[in-house]
Design goal:
The chain is mainly α. It has two domains: about 55 residues; about 60 residues, no CATH class. It has a two-stranded parallel sheet with strand order 1-2. The protein is globular. The chain starts with 7 loop residues before the first strand and ends with a strand.
Length: about 120
């Protein structure tokens, strides 16, 4: 984040996935205190995320989902049988391609392979 000169551009898919991930971690913690995030910690993460959106640190870009789905279908047909890619990973890469991204952020090794195969420079 320190290297960025402007906002981090994200899609509504990233917004949804982040929020859903935090919520499921709160639920996991409620069932087993050794897992996930406490409710107060998780809710603070969601508030901080919203603050970053409101402050312009993160910028949600509009997406044409019909185009993304067509790109995702093509990626799936090309790479899934060989690479075993999950749908959400394919959707993220398809969205980046749709938005004309040149760089892609991921911590997932398999998603990294897919993004690189499509010519995106992956930053970890």
């Amino acid at each position: 984040m320190a290297m960025l000169t402007g906002p981090l551009r994200i899609s509504s898919l990233v917004l949804l996935e982040f929020r859903q991930s935090v919520r499921i971690q709160i639920r996991l913690h409620g069932n087993d205190r050794n897992k996930g995030y406490s409710q107060s910690e998780g809710l603070q993460m969601l508030r901080d995320f919203q603050i970053d959106l409101s402050a312009g640190i993160l910028s949600a870009l509009p997406v044409d989902w019909a185009d993304v789905h067509q790109r995702a279908e093509a990626l799936s047909g090309t790479y899934t049988l060989v690479g075993g890619h999950r749908l959400v990973d394919i959707l993220h890469v398809a969205t980046a391609l749709h938005l004309g991204a040149e760089e892609f952020l991921t911590f997932d090794a398999n998603q990294k392979k897919l993004a690189e195969a499509e010519g995106l420079r992956v930053l970890l």
